[in-house]
Amino acid sequence: MFALVVRFTVLPDHLEAFDALVAETLAEIALGEPETLVYVSHERSERPHERVFYECYQSDDAFQFHEAQAHTIRFLHERDQHLAGPPEVWPLTTLSGVINGDLRAK
Hints:
Elements: E1 2-9, H1 15-32, E2 36-44, E3 47-57, H2 60-68, H3 70-78, E4 88-92, E5 96-99, E6 102-105
Antiparallel strand pairs: 1-3, 1-4, 2-3, 5-6
Helix pairs in contact: 1-3
């Protein structure tokens, strides 16, 4: 399993455009990436101009597949115009957890 967290600081007057770009990307992920287990955009309650993504993939290969898709390339290309600075990316190492009722361990 491969997972990461990404934090974006969105320019206040770009929130709607950024969220629309995310929605378009999510629709494509849902249609064509069966090994993307979780891809969720969150808003921070205390900082409504920040978005935090949690992404979880079946494997490193599934993540590489995601990164090579046209919708991901488009998102990566277009997102920066909406951001106040570069995103923070935190790759994660899975230790243990539960996915769809199944106990997972490293």
